[in-house]
Amino acid sequence: MQNFEIAVFEGDGIGPEIMRPTLDILSKLSSAASGYNLTFSIVPAGAAHYAKSGESFPEHSMDVARRASAILLSAMGLPDIRYPDGTEISPQIDIRKRLDLFAGVRPVRVHAATLSPLTIPNGKEIDFVLIRESTEGLFYSQGCGEVEENEARETLRITRDVSQKLFQFAFALAAQRKSQGRGRGHVTCVDKANVFRAFAFFREMFDAEAARHPELTSDHAYVDAMALWMVQRPWDFDVLVTENMFGDILSDLGAGIMGGLGVAPSADIGLEHAVFQPCHGSAPDIAGQGLANPFAMILSAAMMLDWLGVTHDHSGLLADGARLQAAVDHVLARGDVLTRDLGGAAGTEDAAQAVMAALDAG
User: Fold this and answer.
1) Which pLDDT tens digit goes with each residue over 169-207?
2) CA distance 139 to 94
3) Which is nearest to 131 in space by CA: 155, 159, 166, 157?
């Protein structure tokens, strides 16, 4: 039986409340029957830890993350705790840069049509993936922008090294989805190449990678047009790939299509490491009240199992990742155990127990 160490960051605000039941579910799935064992190493980071210690991401925590098989990270950051320059404490961005997690994977799947604000035509299905470059772009100069009395500047950076890896990842994912019957093998580059030379450079490298995959198809879209089309016809898309800031904005639009950030999981993946976390924030206004929605955290854990299964060619992990995603989908589609943000009245524990029951029921 294979053992996998998972570095766990419980986060801030509601972070520990949604992490706890997620680890309970993962522990239940981890078994000799599935052929793997998960061990959890809980390590500190975040705004609350910074307030106590003056460190937002201790080096020991980074060491644990580096040696782990995968990293599970809950919501981080608190609006009232900031660095001296006024910027938010965001270890989730720090870890992306330090571990070269260049591919931010944001699935957009409508689990239950009743949750989406969109009217979905009969026969149409919303199931696409937005891949956001996560280490450079307009976030490159985070915390280092130049501010003068009458002018401020931030630097957008796009490099050949990172972009080529990003596009290789995007086309590989499109091929994987096509083989699974989940997409048509199509990749769309989302940019602003008509205005910025940096994005013309980005598009040029995308086209070079596309030429290496004649079995797949590709096209381009300007980011403003894509924001429109994601609302008008989201069922037309398969894999979208874009720059960091554009991806940050469009991923929240994708979450809105699904019904909210409470059902939006994510991953940040590199060549050697991967982090899995919900897209939403730490919601300190409801922390400690048992009201937080755990679905995005649980779905992020399902993504982790799937990634571990693919990376280690492990059928048990792949099967459990699919089972866990299906269990959450079942609860959302049934609609009788939903948290307040989704229009229901269930608390964190009720929602997690419903997922556990769906797993037990197969």
Assistant:
1) 999 999 999 999 999 999 999 999 999 999 999 999 999
2) 11
3) 166
> Other C-beta atoms within 10 Å of 66: how many?
14
pLDDT digits 0-9 by tens, 235-289: 999 999 999 999 999 999 999 999 999 999 999 999 999 999 999 999 999 999 9
Whether residue 13 is predicted with pLDDT greater than 90 in this model: the reply is: yes
Residue 180 sits in the same domain as residue 91? no
pLDDT of residue 357: 97
Question: Structural domain of residue 82, as residue ranges?
Answer: 1-109+264-362
Same-domain pairing of 14 and 140: no
pLDDT of residue 8: 98
**Residues 348, 292: contact at Cβ < 8 Å?**
yes
Which amino acid, residue 269?
A: I
Tally of CB atoms within 10 A around 328: 25
One domain, residues 269 and 145: no
CATH of the domain at 321: 3.40.718.10
- Which residues make Cβ contacts (< 8 Å) with residue 232, sequence separation at least 6? none
pTM of this prediction?
A: 0.94
Which helix (H) or strand (E) segment holds residue 173: the answer is helix 160-179
* CA dist., res. 167 & res. 243, Å (int): 11
Band of the pLDDT at 31, cuts 50, 70, 90?
confident
For every residue of 29-73, which 3-state class applies, written as one string? HCECCCCEEEEEEECCCCHHHHHHHCCCCCHHHHHHHHHCCEEEE
